[in-house]
Structures are given as structure tokens and as C-alpha cells.
Amino acid sequence: QDNQSYSSKGTLRGLHLQKGASAQAKLVRVIKGEVLDVAVDLRPGSPTYGQHYGARLSEENQHQLFVPRGFAHGFVVLADDTIFAYKCDNFWDKAAEGGLHYADPGLNIDWILPANELITSEKDGILPYLADVKEPFF
Q1: Phi-psi region for residue 92, left (φ > 0), alpha (ψ -120 to 50) or beta?
Q2: What confidence tens digit (pLDDT) does each residue in 81-137 have?
Q3: 134: Cβ–Cβ under 8 A, 6 or more apart, which residues?
Q4: What are residue 39's phi and psi, to 5 degrees?
Q5: Which residues contact 135 (CB under 8 A, 6 or more apart)?
Q6: Active site residue 6
Q7: How many angstroms separate the CA atoms of 105 and 114, rounded?
Q8: What's the whole-model pTM score?
Q9: 7 to each of 28, 58, 74, 101, 109, how far by Cα in Å?
């Protein structure tokens, strides 16, 4: 499945995932603009469980990031008129949606931009903190 989004500077999407059999691996890149892309390891038993990795992706550096199944994913847009593209190895399933709150203090993600400049959805704002998740996502 191929997806593409168009966003303004400050837009933060995530941290999203698909649970269980609907889990997705993603290959993400920026066509125009720049983002900070973040992946959080949520694989039970992983030595890096609960840790995150972030990378700047831009039209200039042409970098891509592979996000394996078992990770939550999100990004913040660092330039206006950013076009973000991502390929998924499994179809999106509304019933399997899940995620973590982008401002989870246990994850301590530096989104680069000040909190008052972030544009977030109501849906992302009510996602749980990792410490409050009772059952594994995967």
C-alpha cells in the first residue's frame, strides 16, 4: 500500500501502529520539505523495547527510513508544504489502529519544535502513554 501526505510546518502525526496480524512495516521518505521521523520499538522481549530512533528526512538528503513491524511510527514536519510518502507491507485496518501519545514522558522524544508550535489531531492527543498500556500491541 502506498500513501502520501501533505502537511504544514509543525504538523505532528503519530505515534501510530497497526496491532496484531495487521502490523505493518513501512518504508518512509520525503518528496518535498523535511521531517523528523521517529520509530519506537514495541516488540515484546526486544532489548531495545521502549526506545526510539529519530532521523531527519528531507528532499535534500534523500534519506529513507525502514520501520519494521512491531514499531510505533510518527513524524513532525519541519518545513512548510512537505510531502511525505510511505509504503506499507500490509493494508490499513481501522479495527487494528493503535498508538502512543507523542508527548509520552517515558519515551522522552525531542520533536525539535516547541510544544506550542505543534499541530496535532484530537485523536493523537488521546493516545495512551506506554506505561499505561496493559497488553502488548504485537
Answers
A1: beta
A2: 999 999 999 999 999 999 999 999 999 999 999 999 999 999 999 999 999 998 888
A3: none
A4: -125, 135
A5: none
A6: no
A7: 15
A8: 0.94
A9: 15, 13, 13, 20, 20
Q: Taking a C-beta distance cutoff of 8 angstroms, is the pair 107, 52 a contact?
A: yes
Residue 66 carries which side chain, given as an amino acid letter?
F
Catalytic residue flag (residue 63): no
Selecting among 52, 86, 101, 102, the annotated active-site residue is 86
From 16, 52, 73, 101, the catalytic residue: 16
Domain boundaries, the chain: 2-97
**Quick check: 55 and 39 in contact, CB under 8 A?**
no
**Is 2's pLDDT higher than 90?**
yes
User: Which fold does the domain 2-97 belong to in CATH?
Assistant: Jelly Rolls (2.60.120)
Whose cell is 479495527? That residue is 95
Residue 138: pLDDT band (50, 70, 90) is: confident
